[in-house]
Amino acid sequence: xxxxxxxxxxxxxxxxxxxxxxxxxxxxxxxxxxxxxxxxxxxxxxxxxxxxxxxxxxxxxxxxxxxxxxxxxxxxxxxxxxxxxxxxxxxxxxxxxxxxxxxxxxxxxxxxxxxxxxxxxxxxxxxxxxxxxxxxxxxxxxxxxxxxxxxxxxxxxxxxxxxxxxxxxxxxxxxxxxxxxxxxxxxxxxxxxxxxxxxxxxxxxxxxxxxxxxxxxxxxxxxxxxxxxxxxxxxxxxxxxxxxxxxxxxxxxxxxxxxxxxxxxxxxx
Length: 269
Description:
Elements: E1 6-10, E2 33-37, H1 40-47, H2 51-72, H3 74-80, H4 93-96, H5 100-122, H6 128-139, H7 160-170, H8 188-193, H9 199-218, E3 222-224, E4 227-229, E5 240-241, E6 244-247, E7 255-258
Antiparallel strand pairs: 1-2, 3-6, 4-5, 6-7
Helix pairs in contact: 2-3
């Protein structure tokens, strides 16, 4: 009776780009591995656990049970904790015990070098305004907001429009769907200078309030718009009012006054 030839192809996965394995996989073959068996029963038998697998499984269960006993039974914790394996040992136990943060640091250095080389080749093609905006973000390291956890409690949960506009401002790109309410062409530069609609004072107040909120977390006595000097109508001297006053910033029990100024860093002057 003729028997059919059963062929099974196994694809060997390749390491993903941009990642480094803690175990050296350079000796693995990239070709398709073809296994031929004359009997389907032999294929099924090769997939079933062997007696060696049963022994390894029993040892692993012993390790897990000993860890559970030492964690929850005081007697075992006192007498056997120092001899119990904390991890199930295998062929690559020593390699996998290495801290991955070291490899991550090396990978980040490689990615940083590639990024710097790419930036040096692309930066000269930008115009002066975009070049200044990108270079400012690099020099002052203003990318921390991209890695902040978007917590709604701290107002870090940006909407899709806010995130898109933030990226556009970072790379000096024009914002989309801007209104034209004052008769002039609206842009980010014009928004910083336009005196209509109260945008200038509103932007100033938002920064003041955000600074005051963050300061109140670290200090107890925070006052908004404190009066430094009362007005003098006889001598026509206006009142002197700060944006914030905080007690204990530079020295204990001393009040520090803050004045918020909004500057257009992309202005021509």
